Structures
1.
Amino acid sequence: MIVKIRSGSQQQRRAAKKAINWCADKLLSKRIQPYIFIEVIIRDMTRDNCLGFCSWTEDNLRPRDFLIEIDNRQGSKRFLQTIFHEMTHLKQYAKNELKEYLRDHKVMWKGQEITSYNYRKCPWEIEAYKTEKELYKQMQVEGVCKEYSWGEKYHWIKDKKVHKDLICQITQQKK
Ligand SMILES: [Zn+2]
């Protein structure tokens, strides 16, 4: 697995790299890992009104190249949880559990077409929210990333209207 991280503070880059490599073993099989390429961009996502983003690049048939974007204003706890959230989506794409057909405006989840687009009720979001909390807890138990700690930059993040992410382009368009 290759992880390339751009921008953000040095502390954020190091924490992101460590967290991604750590959770990859929990989320992805050893067989698939060597083929995965992840580009991570840590940036101000005010305009996107979300905390993170995960998308596949190139093809959606067997996605192996991914782009993950993480908002740089999150405190360390939320930052790491967002990473686990997006990595869960990466796993869903890589294992073909979640498939987006942009041309047909279609989303498939574990082989079934999804027609209801309530963000928090989407099965892939339910799984991602659950997994981000579980992995964060487990990481703390194991003492991974404990050397990285910083606070949130702005209060806006407490605003509930901010999305965790905009994972699915199609669900966003249909809103
Ligand atoms: Zn999500």
2.
Amino acid sequence: MEYQYLIDLNDEKNWLFPIVNREPNGNVWEEARTIHYPVGKESLMRVTDSVFHPQPSAHCHYHRAAYEIFFWSMAPLDYYAAGKVAEVPPGCITLHRPYEPHGFGFHALTRKVGFFHRMDMPLEDGICSALLREKQPDARRRPDFPKAGAVMTDIVRAEDPVDYRRVPWQEMDGVRSIDRPLAVERFDGVTMKMLIARWETGGVKEVWAAEMEKGFTAASNPWPLRTEMLYVTKGEVRFTVYDDTFIAYKECIVKLPKYGEYRIEALSDAVVYDVGGQTEWFLLFRDRGSICASDGARLADAEAMRELKARHGCEIRTIGKN
Ligand SMILES: [Fe+2]
């Protein structure tokens, strides 16, 4: 059986149902492709990749249930939220929670890799939309085509921003950068940085960046109990899962399947984001810090540490440095 561990975002083979969204005047404003369809009751691991074109509308909208986490690249963009607008540099991340209206202004081609949860747009919807485009390419432009409901799940149009106050991006709550982490934990060969906390996502996930030094290694438990999703934004990392080996590089998504023991080795300095976000890294590190300060013997007790990691869903058994 073939399992797709590695999803290169730049390989068109991985663009599921690419679409082009146009303004009413016909100008292209978004080239979008679904990269991964959501799974489970929280609709986790929905991934999209879009390139936006300069456009007059900020397309302000909000969601009633969905959370969005966007990785931006290629060019700076204007981000509108909470009565403020800021220029967000490439490399930043934005977080959009339910009932937080948000809009974006683009001045050059700008790329967004999006990770969603609680936005229920399953594979069946993708297939049905693709079928509609094939059979009736103009259907969505017809005045009698339904405007709400199943057409776009949980995307509610908001008024366009007027008189928003311009501020530095650091003053926007939803903008995150690896240079301004919410928490940092250092180990030999790797620095973990929290960009999005679990209390900001309805408790569903948290997003950490792992800054790996060349030679850093990590090995999982024999049968990890959850599929994990990682996003490599810098460097090269070799993964071994079961008896399969592959190298992930910049702009690759990596899926590590439930039950598959894996090993990671950074072949260069690398940055890898935990975008599946299931491990409770923050609680794990806080608990470990407390134990470290109060009870060094327990920290050295392998069984106690195994139990601590299991409690917080951490499947990393060992880390090291080559
Ligand atoms: Fe949104």
